[in-house]
Amino acid sequence: MPSHPLSRYDGRLCVVTASTAGIGKAIAKRMLQEGGRVVVSSRKQASVDDALAELKPEFGDRVIGVVCNVSKADDRATLLKAALSFGDGKIDVLVSNAASSITIGPTDNCDDQQWDKMFENNVKSAWQLTKEFKPHLRRGSGVVLFVTSIAAFSLMSPLAIYGVTKTALTGLMKALAQELGPEGIRVNALAPGVVKTKFSELLWKNKGASELWSGQSMLNRVAEPEEMAGPAAFLCSFDASYVTGETLIASGGVSSRL
């Protein structure tokens, strides 16, 4: 049974990509706790199975899992079909969380192939996913949320190209918010700071890195994945019904101006 005092997601169908670990799983779990029906996804079947083994004992048939590499058209089609079959033919919330960082360091460290792959994974796939899901998003109340990063606003030298892709994703969010607004569909972004996930181990796992990045936060620590779930749940809920085209920065106070 839901263990959260709020029930903002009762009867709502939510699709969260890259949601079998880290921030994505925390967001999916929060929406389940608030009464939603959730489709989780990952590129690997084993990851989907592990997530369902954790979530189903608590949430039962309100959660399903799908293998989906968002850069592959067939996988996106499978995800959409599964979501439509899971609900009433309409989708209430789409959270685009999938991303990659396949090059480390300054921009010169990135070759053309890596550049193209990162923009495909981090920007193009979010655009494609939204474009394909758009006809099925509930008019008047549908929501799209892009998970971006503080790296879109504040230079993080180990993640230069990653930050560029997230800045581009922020621009895409604003364009889509303007285009979908007349249909009553809101589009926003959540920009986490450094969060304790496998994806960001480079920035927090060893003591020196942890002290460096924690020191940039006014709270003097890195975040837990669950601390991103609340802001995401707010943005996708009716509590944020007049919020669109915005980025909520959850960075612990790290400087966040372009």
TrEMBL record:
Gene3D superfamilies: NAD(P)-binding Rossmann-like Domain. Coiled coil: none annotated. The keyword Transmembrane applies. The keyword Cytoplasm does not apply. Keywords: Membrane, Transmembrane, Transmembrane helix. It comes from the Eukaryota. The chain crosses the membrane at residues 143-164. Belongs to the short-chain dehydrogenases/reductases (SDR) family. This is Dehydrogenase reductase SDR member 4. It comes from Perkinsus olseni (Perkinsus atlanticus).
